[in-house]
Specification:
single chain; alpha/beta; Histidine-containing Protein, Chain: A; 60s Ribosomal Protein L30, Chain: A; three-stranded mixed beta sheet; 6 helices; 18% strand; elongated
Amino acid sequence: MPNRMVPALGLLALVALCFFCVSHHAQAIPIDLKNRSIRAMQSAPFPTTGIEFDGRIATLKGYSDSPEVSAKAIQTVRDVHGVFDVKTIIIPGSKDSVEATQLETKLQDVIAGKVVEFTTGSAELTAKGKVVLDQMVALLKEYPQKPVEVSGHTDAEGDHRMNITLSKERAESVRAYLITQGIDARRLFAAGHGPDNPVADNNTEDGRQKNRRIEFHVKETR
């Protein structure tokens, strides 16, 4: 009986070895295809965010505002030996413009309904004002290359020139605080608009309160 078991055990071992080899080879295929596809894409004018493989099917992710560029990128990967098909996840526009839009939207979401508070009549931030700015710091660090303008606004009460000066000083104060929290000074710009860009009626207290504000906007690069 034991003598009969030896060939059977040997056969099982051979089957297990074959299964391991096939499984290992199957896992190695996507890695090899991905590496060769990445090398091929280095010659294509297509800003990819990633190439992934499910077996021999590639998924190409990236930004493009040109159908011709997208088509060339797809064909470049499809021409890699061993690739069966290419799926794409294309985000319209350049990477820079898409990220700028994303940051602008998030900036407005964070500041919506909040007030960057200052001591009355001055450019000194209050503790509450710094809490709001700390949320901005976290967001700005997600997009470390995007320039942002900090804009100060006032209501229409008092002298126009003094309001312009105060709004600029408050914007500069916000900029300075953001810099102390680790935001690169070279990407932050301060501007003071005084009462010139109201968002509400200056004839009511509620309107004047809304007009006294700090805004954040992604600055266009040239």
